[in-house]
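Weekly puzzle thread! Below is a chain. First person to post its structure in token form gets bragging rights.
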Amino acid sequence: MALAEGLVRSSPKDANAWLTLGEIAWICQMWERAFPAATRAFELDSATKENMFLYALMLGDFGRLKEHRELLERLVAQHPKYLHPRLDLAKVELLDGDYTQGWKNFEARFWSLTKIYKTGI
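Winning reply:
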């Protein structure tokens, strides 16, 4: 944490510094630091898939479920091969009762993994 906080202090306008701080704080379950850091990373660079995903996770963790789902949908649309958000979106859709789309997104993850194992990509 100390290194990540130092990185943010030395580069306060660097979205990657804020992303690093947010990820470390999230892993350490330091929510009071994780959400503001993820928010700042997203504010500085809302197009990078890693910033979008961490911010989406934070929105979900803090009960902002409509925004959570909307950002996951946007992320999956913009980065369809990025598997982690697709699985999270599938879980949200299934919990919301959207079984057709939820199972489709859930199964897409397994098809992608099958392709990776078969081709070695």
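Puzzle host: Confirmed. Bonus trivia for everyone else. The helical segments are 2-10, 15-27, 31-44, 49-61, 65-78, 83-95, 99-119.
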